[in-house]
Amino acid sequence: MSSISFTVSFRGQSYPLDLPSDTTLINLQAILHDLTSVPPSNKKLLWKGKKAVGDDTTLIQAGFKDGVRVQMLGSTEQEVGGLKAAEQQHINRVQARTPSSRPRIQPRVTPASSSSLRFRFHKIAPLHHLPNPISAQTLLDKLANDPAILHVMQQHSFSVGLLTELAPHEHPGLLGLNVNSGQEIKLRIRTDRYDGFRLYNDIRKVLCHELAHNVWGDHDENFKQLNSQLNREVAEHGRARAAGTHTLATSTDPYGIYQAPEQEVEAEAWSHVLGGNSSTTSIGGDSRDEMRKRMLEATIKRLQREEEQLEISCGTGHCTDDKDAPTSP
């Protein structure tokens, strides 16, 4: 068997070798280990004309020829041992500075519950033929991820297939529509002139109204009671999130009435909004309780007017020109 003469260079030093052409690379690695103290696991060999190699590949199969120069890269056993020792010393120093009694906090990922995946809006889509669909998408996403809305959806097991919008010119007079008890909910989110978007809280009230249609189709007392409950729970959820807010009375507002969280009065008012008259009575005077009663009655009347308008502007359960509108149950 012929031999191959070549040179291995390592850190400025050359090692001329003359080996049989059937010498395997694993044998070459052992020879270089004896010469340089670099173990096979720590070295890399580079040469011109290199071919696919394995441990049992011979020199001639790997592309070795007479006169080829091989560049070797790697670390000696002594260097590797020194690095491991330095690393262990660093670990020891860190552990010495860290009290052993200190609890180690492991990162924890809380998986989404099955109910949170089920009771939600499964798809959100604006109308892309209308102006500024990106802003419309942002607004719909905000509604779909509103903490208070998600709260009532979990509480009442509401699932909606698609949340989308109503075009003012295509559905004049409508503010909301629930198709097939939650298959789709459509909301009027734009102004009539398409020069902006309606107020967020107004749209959210329409959304609560349409969510109630997931259970009741007609605007009967059952619907009114559930609708009031949903709006009350939304208001109470907002109040709970703002529970850390503090207010101070002033000389012009001695009882702090006008600084009280709006959700508190609105949540209480929704308990009375079932389509009938308010059970509260406005009383003269300026005590805190009397002022609160007047605020409550005014809020109830406002909410009742808004609900009456929403019923008129709701396409669910009514005959409309919308081809997707459901028939009255």
Automatic annotation (TrEMBL):
The record places domain Ubiquitin-like at 4-73
| Alphabetical list of SUPFAM superfamilies matching this protein | Ubiquitin-like (SSF54236)
What GO terms are given for molecular function?
proteasome binding
Query: Domain WLM, which positions?
Result: 112-304
Disordered, as annotated region: 307-329
Give residue spans, biased composition: Basic and acidic residues: 319-329
Q: What is this protein called?
A: WLM domain-containing protein
